[in-house]
């Protein structure tokens, strides 16, 4: 529901599917520490914690969501910059599609070595065209 609401405004957002992340439980614990919220979705907009879907919906009902998600193209990193940042800030960066059997094998191999890695699930991106 949150994705549908944000898509309705053409919002540019990043989704981390915690259940698909190698360290999803650690990420969720860190989110709890930062936000005080244990449940998902756990939504941040412009570095501010919004809450869950009901909080997002309340902002929309009050007419405030559109302004929050309005794109400021002057500050938006290009896709190339986002990819470079992802690669440069993670020791092992894996670009994947959640359904890909070879991607799953790569994750299993890395898990077998207890490697720390970050996954960018391209098919779970908001625009889906990556």
From TrEMBL:
GO terms for molecular function: glutathione disulfide oxidoreductase activity. Keywords: Disulfide bond, Redox-active center. Residues 1-50, 92-124 form the Glutaredoxin domain. GO terms for biological process: cellular response to oxidative stress. GO terms for cellular component: cytoplasm. CDD domains: GRX_GRXh_1_2_like. Transmembrane segments: none annotated. Pfam families: Glutaredoxin (PF00462). It comes from the Eukaryota. PROSITE patterns: GLUTAREDOXIN_1 (PS00195), GLUTAREDOXIN_2 (PS51354). Has a glutathione-disulfide oxidoreductase activity in the presence of NADPH and glutathione reductase. Reduces low molecular weight disulfides and proteins. This is Glutaredoxin-C6. It comes from Lygus hesperus (Western plant bug).
């Amino acid at each position: 529901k949150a994705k549908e609401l944000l898509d309705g405004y053409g919002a540019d957002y990043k989704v981390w599917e915690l259940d698909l992340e190698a360290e999803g439980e650690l990420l969720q614990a860190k989110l709890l520490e930062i936000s005080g919220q244990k449940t998902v979705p756990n939504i941040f907009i412009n570095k501010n914690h919004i809450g869950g879907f009901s909080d997002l919906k309340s902002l929309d009902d009050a007419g405030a969501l559109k302004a929050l998600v309005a794109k400021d193209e002057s500050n938006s990193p290009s896709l190339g910059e986002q990819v470079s940042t992802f690669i440069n800030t993670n020791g092992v960066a894996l670009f994947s599609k959640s359904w890909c059997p070879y991607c799953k094998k790569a994750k299993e191999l890395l898990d077998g070595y207890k490697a720390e890695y970050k996954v960018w699930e391209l098919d779970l991106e908001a625009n889906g065209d990556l």
